Amino acid sequence: MLHHLIRHAAQNGFGEHGFPESGFAPGPLPAPSRRGFLKAIGVGAGALVIGAHLPMPALAAEAAPKIVGPADPRPHAFIIVAPDNTVTVLAKHLDKGQGIVTGLATIAAEELDADWSQVRGAFAPANQKLYANHMFGVQGTGGSTAVANSWDELRMAGAAARAMLVAAAAARWNVPAGEVTVSKGVVRHAASNRSATFGELAEEAAKLPVPQQVKLKDRKDYVLIGNPDLHRLDHISKTNGTAIFAMDIRRPGQVTAVLARSPRFGGTVKSVDDAAARKVPGVIDVISLPVGVAVIAKNTWAAIKGREALTVTWDDAKAETRGTDAMLADYRKAAEKPGAVAANKGDAEKAIADAKAKGGHVVEGEFVFPYLAHAPMEPLNAVVALNPEGGCTIWAGSQFQTVEQMVAAHILGCKPEQVKIETQWAGGSFGRRATPSADYIAEAVMIAKAYPKAPVHLVWTREDDIKGGRYRPLVLHKITAAVDAKGDLVGWKQRIVGQSFMTGTPFEAVMVKDGVDATMVEGASDMAYPVANLAVDAHTVASPVTTLWWRSVGHTHTAYAKEVMIDRLAKAAGKDPVAFRMEMLKDHPRLAGVLKLAAEKAGWGQPLPQGKGRGVAVHESFNTYVAHVADVSVDAKGQIKVDRVVVAVDCGEVVNPDIVKAQMEGGAGWGIGHALRDEITMTDGKVDQSNFDGYLPMRMSDMPAVEVHIVPSHERPTGAGEPGVPTVAPAVANAVFSVTGQPLQTLPFSRGGIVS
Amino acid sequence: MVRINVNGEERQVDVPEDMPLLWVLRDELNMTGTKFGCGIAQCGACTVHVDGTPTRACQTPVSMLTPDSKVTTIEGVKGKAAQAVQAAWQKLDVVQCGYCQSGQIMSAIALLTDNQNPTDEDIDAAMDGNVCRCATYVRIRAAIKDAAQTMRA
Questions:
Q1: Containing domain of residue B139, as a range?
Q2: What is d(CA A432, CA A619) in angstroms, rounded to the nearest whole number?
Q3: Reported pTM
Q4: Which domains occur in chain A, in start order?
Q5: Which member of A103, A270, B88, B107 lies 3.0 to 4.6 Å from A315 by CB, making a disulfide possible if both were Cys?
Q6: Number of structural domains found in chain B
Q7: What would the pLDDT profile of B56-85 be if each residue is shown by its tens digit?
Q8: How far is A332 from chain B (nearest CA, A)?
């Protein structure tokens, strides 16, 4: 239903209502960059717009600095230089831990020549016109695009603001601007030995016109970009308890709501007995909504107790009633028949048959990937207050601001720009806070509409989160591949079965082509290994179980299946896993580069003691190149432990090396943690897990040592949030394979009894 | 009325006796540094000290506290171990999303108060109850060792 809502809101709301100029931007503004989103909802023609999932050429085209050119540096939209000498850089993106507030501030501060100690970060308001992600066309964060799409505009904004400060100083001192220099936040005229701080010049600079041309720094002059010693802007507030997340918002008179949702996906409310719930001390109201039954209370505990006292009967007529075993059996049945074609070159069938007949080797693999929850540490929540003048204000870890504005506007019957969003630090997301339906935000707005007396804080409990869907889909891969008698990869057939989370959303028109959801086959249909005979097809299966992108999206399963198969093929060919890959990556220098670096740093080829294994994997995702080498121990009982991971990453020009390093460390933990033990299963349509006692997160004692090596690069910066995930689990699997000879093709590993 | 001592201050709250300390802190006293992560003592985001012992506030009904119990939260934590731990966390930029870090820090302070030379096994044992979905574990371990060194110096 919400999918329908947003489509409706997008088609009707988006086109009719203009987006007023923001008070942040007094200068000339570019045309609204909604072209992309209009395309996404099927209007007009042009490039792809969803950067998270774009094939390379379209991404490169969108990434070109054409929306914000030198003629439009608009510093005020991004940079505030205050009389107190602080420089605040507004982040149009959500920081959910990936460090983007720091990253964006670094880019702007570099061109501004600010001193890092005076730099602050703040979240920009929701304003699609000013703050669209240039790879999406709407304001939103995802697909490891934040630095890549901000790189040009923030450098130009910083340079423009610097030029205005220089001009103000030149005017004040009556000297040529060309003689004025800036360093570490101080503006100087050496000849007359005069200087001023940014703060002292701010007011005068603000009265000057925004320059229409700016000159960007030569990278050799960078002081902040690439500096490994910069601290994150949130490193103090997040260590003394003062950082405010949406969960911590307390508005005057605020009430707390929890929502009873159907235990089966697709179920609806049949009847409610709320008599007992209303008697729970602190419960204020119980409201039935299309999305469930809301219990509104004075505080969170009362709301939770009130919900426990509810008796709701659910109508399962349209609900998923299969368990995951039955679903998987259906997937296997679907996989018996050809799917929609995602890649087809040469003749894979024939190449494989020929290899078999002529002394080559054929390897077959079936891979099963479970549903996975994102389970960010901060459970989903949002505060919504209706505004007296119409519309509402939302406090949330908002990741898709434009979508949330449209959905909220549709629910409230107001204009999208009447929906104000106060973006907060988010306690993780991993994709979960960005949904095409704005799911939890929509719930909160519906409750606020039904209970207009006070600001409403909708809180999901951890149980709501684990059972709440939007999972990484359950996916089945069947692969048959062959090396010929020389040991060269000659044929590859792959069939993928899973749900599409793009179908039924505004993104379907661009992301689903000829029955293939690009996010289901990315990393497979476009694999870098130059196999002459490649056939990849896909079956999209339907279920009321909701699914969503999950940190590194399709690459979470395609990279795994590919890289585990490659090791099996290398073994069949009698080749070393690194050498086998290197000989196939001759035309992919950046992939070959990270592979070589990781292998060297890990000591690839050195003999290992009994019971120790070493494995490798390499992959490109989100235009970033990553290789992992994993070292594992396998004990006498066959139990595994990951001892060490070596990562090599090439993400172009690195803005904050320490943050890239942190993302690689965290990405390794994310990838390994889920591979070890995590799965969402269902029995008769009901989720079996409910909290961290059943959905088992990685903990300290599971975490291996992680060594990160960054490839020095002058290429345009790409992303770091997701690309550190796809290759770590297959590297671990290949390390185990090197010891046991058993490929790990069913996830999580605990299913095979090798992890306690 | 329930009387509790939080960060050295006597506080009175009008709450049911079964309300967990977590919600007393967050919803009644507006001390939001202590976080809600799971509600069943599986993630450690709500870790506070009760008389110096790391305690999951989400599974501590306020009635379990005695009038003499001293509750310490991230907002009020002080002393040599606290200083060393917070400084190490900041020096190494441990945080990512930061939501679990109040709990991580409270557990780490308790560990180092008792043991200023923890082994990796000691760190595993003391910290395994604190989940970090960003997996900042590499830096948490390094920061604990860094803080331990500071304390020994």
A1: 80-152
A2: 24
A3: 0.92
A4: 31-221 (3.30.365.10), 246-318+380-459 (3.30.365.10), 324-372+471-752 (3.30.365.10)
A5: A270
A6: 2
A7: 999 999 999 998 999 999 999 999 999 999
A8: 32
